[in-house]
Amino acid sequence: MGDLGLKDAFATVTSEALLQALLVILIASALVFAIQKALPKLAGKVGGKPRLYLLAMVPLLRLLIIIATIIIVVPILIEPSFENMVAIFGALGLAVGFALKDYANSLIAGIVTLYEMPYRPGDWIEVDGKYGEVRYIGSRTAEIVTPDDSVVIIPHSTLWNSLISNGNDGTDNLMCVAEFYLEPNHDVRRVLSLLRDVAFTSPMTRTWMPVTVVVSNQPWGMKYRVKAYPNEPKEQFHFVTDLTARGAGVLAAEGVGFVSAPVAGD
């Protein structure tokens, strides 16, 4: 019965219908290609939230174009009767269930990703020990670019069984931390004030966002953590470098020594 349903569904397909469907698919492909090239390029010329919004529009527009293409193409090729739809989607269900199980798992997770948005283009995330900026979100995978400029492909199915850390969560606010391991027997309040000034006077700091310096006592000395926000998330590594270099200079001038090797894990 299923085979007869499929034969009946495609019985009315003509060469003219195939050409029309092909034309629609080509137009849709061209639109998707143009969006995937133009919007990231435009986003690269702007900063802040507009950049994140433009990047987040890419997977959404691509999904809308794919859905619209399916809605247009199916009636061109197949008479939209109940029997035909049951036959077509029944066959697709079997194919997905037996031949494309893993792909379907990632595809469904991709739909969930677009709906729940645990990460978006422009977000800085860490998944399974890999950290980087989300550059692209497809129907099955996401691509992140690491600080070493390597591209890591992450299947959306990772959503089901992995922890995902999102540093800026759709905003342009990303906290950075610079750490200092210092010898004991110094004026803690003085060092806290100096490191706070280092963060506030950095030209890369968002001074309207909170700047915090915390200290903890360790067996080997004192551990300081300077928490602040850079002007742009993509500047985070230069920002931490700037805080570290400036902080080290100020502490050296104050005569505060560094420990050579903190205990592993501290």
From TrEMBL:
<keyword id="KW-1133">Transmembrane helix</keyword>
<keyword id="KW-0472">Membrane</keyword>
<dbReference type="GO" id="GO:0005886">
    <property type="term" value="C:plasma membrane"/>
</dbReference>
<keyword id="KW-0997">Cell inner membrane</keyword>
<comment type="function">
    <text>Mechanosensitive channel that participates in the regulation of osmotic pressure changes within the cell, opening in response to stretch forces in the membrane lipid bilayer, without the need for other proteins. Contributes to normal resistance to hypoosmotic shock. Forms an ion channel of 1.0 nanosiemens conductance with a slight preference for anions.</text>
</comment>
<feature type="transmembrane region" description="Helical">
    <location>
        <begin position="52"/>
        <end position="78"/>
    </location>
</feature>
<keyword id="KW-0407">Ion channel</keyword>
<keyword id="KW-0813">Transport</keyword>
<keyword id="KW-1003">Cell membrane</keyword>
<comment type="similarity">
    <text>Belongs to the MscS (TC 1.A.23) family.</text>
</comment>
<dbReference type="InterPro" id="IPR010920">
    <property type="entry name" value="LSM_dom_sf"/>
</dbReference>
<comment type="subunit">
    <text>Homoheptamer.</text>
</comment>
<dbReference type="InterPro" id="IPR023408">
    <property type="entry name" value="MscS_beta-dom_sf"/>
</dbReference>
<dbReference type="InterPro" id="IPR011014">
    <property type="entry name" value="MscS_channel_TM-2"/>
</dbReference>
<feature type="transmembrane region" description="Helical">
    <location>
        <begin position="17"/>
        <end position="40"/>
    </location>
</feature>
<keyword id="KW-0406">Ion transport</keyword>
<dbReference type="InterPro" id="IPR006685">
    <property type="entry name" value="MscS_channel_2nd"/>
</dbReference>
<dbReference type="Pfam" id="PF00924">
    <property type="entry name" value="MS_channel_2nd"/>
</dbReference>
<keyword id="KW-0812">Transmembrane</keyword>
<protein>
    <recommendedName>
        <fullName>Small-conductance mechanosensitive channel</fullName>
    </recommendedName>
</protein>
<feature type="domain" description="Mechanosensitive ion channel MscS">
    <location>
        <begin position="102"/>
        <end position="166"/>
    </location>
</feature>
<dbReference type="GO" id="GO:0008381">
    <property type="term" value="F:mechanosensitive monoatomic ion channel activity"/>
</dbReference>
<dbReference type="InterPro" id="IPR045275">
    <property type="entry name" value="MscS_archaea/bacteria_type"/>
</dbReference>
